[in-house]
Design brief:
Blueprint lengths: L14 E2 L2 E2 L10 E6 L5 H13 L3 E6 L4 H8 L4 E4 L6 H6 L5 E4 L9 H6 L3 E4 L5 H16 L15 E5 L3 H12 L3 E5 L5 H6 L3 E2 L3 H7 L2 E4 L13 H4 L7 E4 L8 H10 L4 E4 L6 H7 L4 E3 L9 H21 L9
Helix pairs in contact: 1-12, 5-6
The protein binds 3-phosphoglyceric acid (3PG).
Amino acid sequence: MGFSYLIPVGHPENHIKGKTVELTTTFTPMKVLVATEKPFAKVAVEGIRKVVEEAGYTLVLLEKYTHKQQLLEAVADADAMIVRSDIVDKEVLDAAKQLKIVVRAGAGYDNIDLAEATAHNVVAMNTPGQNSNAVAELALGLMVYAVRNFYNGTSGTELMGKTLGIHAFGNVGRNVARIAKGFGMNVIAFDAYCPDDAMTAAGVTPVHSAQELYKQADIVSLHIPATPETKQSINYALLSLMPKGAMLVNTARKEVINEGELIQFMQERQDFKYVTDIMPASDMKMQELFADRYFATPKKMGAQTAEANINAGIAAARQIVDFLKNGNTRFQVNK
Ligand code: 3PG
């Protein structure tokens, strides 16, 4: 809840041309809403609160909300908003009459309708890199879990000596490479936007097409964003290039998978495993069909660590303060 206060008489803001003027204005501090259906760790919220309150703003929390209406009501008088994977669409932006900035505390901003944000004069930002180690650690965790047959007591395999194909060498992909090398994996990567030098400097072998990556990799780890170009792009044709006993690890987005074709492929290829941190729409069906070679986390867990929450949450709060006070738009994604 916001509050109003009067600037005390004698305050520098009340001196105009050397004259002390009587107060005629009330000020309501800027309101920063943290709207997180999946809440940050408590310690991260406290860090966000500190940044926001030190800037003279008010923090309002909307956590674990279950209905969009709650978000629509909470955002009505917010000047700034921090979200995670929470959907920020036209309806939310229409309701946000005072909103100047929304920051996605995380990497992927496919949950924000950027065109609508621009149309509503709202700056949209993300906090790139802040949660990437957490996601990378989970990707490796999922790999170990799967190659050890989901800890069912049977004999599995090791990661050492296997070829890991990193699909997109951004912040998460780089961290996955670093950790995978510690496991003794042979790491290759494909990223149309990343120069070979950046990969070789990290001890990673660049390949120059997705097809080449899938042909060579025992395990592919996905780190592509969900864009019109990438949606549904992981399909039967690509997967069928993978060698026997292969596995796909998805800590990116479910939308990049062509689920129908993945199911068809897994029905034909009994040796293939799929592990994901983003539950597919056909989760029930996949559990029934592929009980011993399919796993999805019940809720997206990649960025769900205290460290990642602190890094991304506080970065988001700082970006808001820097934008509102100084107009800094460095991380704007709807330019
Ligand atoms: C991201 O894009 O940063 C990750 O997918 C994390 O998403 P989350 O904040 O919803 O956990």
